C-alpha cells in the first residue's frame, strides 16, 4: 500500500519545481499573455489536485480488493 501512494506523494512534493518547469516551457512555446505567478499557481494547484485524485483512487481501489 505504501508503494501505491508513492507516486501521488512525489507528485505533490515536486509540484512546485515541476510547475516552474512547465511554466517556463509554456512561456517559451506560447506568447506571454498574463502574469507568470498566476500561471505557476494554477499549475501547482492542478498538480496537487491530480495527486489527491490519484491517491484517493489508489486508496479506494485497495479497499475493494
Present the secondary structure layout.
Layout: H1 6-13, H2 15-29, H3 36-64
Helix pairs in contact: 1-3, 2-3
How far the N terminus sits from the C terminus, by CA atoms, comes to 12 Å
Overall radius of gyration:
15 Å
Strand content: under 5%
Principal-axis shape:
elongated
* Total individual domains: 1
Low-confidence region ranges: none
Helical coverage, percent range: over 70%
| Biggest sheet features | none
Describe the oligomeric state of these chains in a short phrase: single chain
List the secondary-structure elements in sequence, H or E.
HHH
Structural class: mainly alpha
Output the number of helix runs. 3
Mean pLDDT: 80
How many beta strands in the DSSP annotation?
0
Keywords: Membrane, Transmembrane, Transmembrane helix
Transmembrane segments: 38-60
List keywords for this structure.
transmembrane helix, 3 helices, membrane, single chain, 80% helix, 65 residues, mainly alpha
Could you explain how this protein is built, in words?
This protein has about 60 residues and is mainly α. It has one domain (about 5-65). Helix content is about 80%, strand content about 0%. The protein is built from three helices and no strands. The protein is elongated, with a radius of gyration of 15 Å. The termini are close together. About 5% of the residues are buried. The mean pLDDT is about 80.
